[in-house]
Amino acid sequence: MQRREFIRNSTVAGVGLSLSGLSLSALATNSAANKIRVAVIGTNGRGLAHIEAYHTIPNVEIAYVCDVEANALAKGINLAEKLNGKRPKAIHDFRTILDDKNLDVVSIATPDHWHTPAAILACAAGKQVYVEKPCGHNPEEGEMLIAAAKKYNRLVQMGNQRRSWPHITEAMKAIHEGIIGEVYFGKGWYANNRKSIGKGKVVPVPSNLDWQLWQGPAPREDYR
């Protein structure tokens, strides 16, 4: 199945979120003191920052930590337990927790190619979603995610920190109010070019990694 078909079928089949600024009662669907229960997916990088951030928000509980690589999963679990004093459930395949009616939010920090599929699956399961940038592999996926959020009436936020910074939002407000007059031209550029990471040789898949699930909707490739 091609990637586009996988994502579109996920939508049809029905198969940072600024929590501090939202009503707890609006998000929490469980009866455990109206706590917002979160699953963090992908903990070999940004997911660890998600765990740290949720720790600072009152009435939020990290219920699940999910990763397809055992060492990354252990890092996430240990960090959550260290910060919160409570050990969340360790999950290999995040899809197995989407039926949990007491799970409110899915926080996605997977590799980029999983962002849209995971977010759509979470929306279809009735969860609110925070997803790291980019929200999709291409513009069409972004449109699919918007459609899913509307269809299932879910809150979806893509984590673009620069747009969330207070001084940026204040500056935009001032511009919209006309502080520099009518804006008729804008220019942007990206100056953080990176060198290629190269192409490794085909090697056996590490025993602690589910390579098939890591690839998800992407075309099958040998492990390098």
Q: Can you characterise this structure?
A:
There is one protein chain. With 224 residues, the protein is of the alpha/beta class. The protein has one domain: NAD(P)-binding Rossmann-like Domain (Rossmann fold, 3-Layer(aba) Sandwich), CATH 3.40.50. Helix content is 37%, strand content 13%. The chain has 9 helices and 6 strands. Strands 3-2-1-4-5-6 form a 6-stranded parallel beta sheet, sandwiched between helices. α1 runs parallel beside α5 (115-124), α3 (46-55) runs parallel beside α4 and α5 runs parallel beside α6. The model is unreliable at 9-25 (pLDDT under 50).
Structural class: alpha/beta
If you average the pLDDT, what whole number results?
87
Shape category: globular
In total, the number of domains comes to 1
Radius of gyration, whole Å: 19 Å
Low-confidence stretches: 9-25
CATH class wording: Alpha Beta
- What amount of the residues lies in strands? 5-15%
Main attributes of the structure:
alpha/beta
Brief summary of the model shown:
The protein is of the alpha/beta class and 224 residues long. The protein has helices spanning 3-13, 24-27, 46-55, 70-84, 115-124, 139-151, 161-164, 166-176, 211-215, and strands at residues 36-41, 60-66, 89-91, 105-108, 128-132, 156-159.
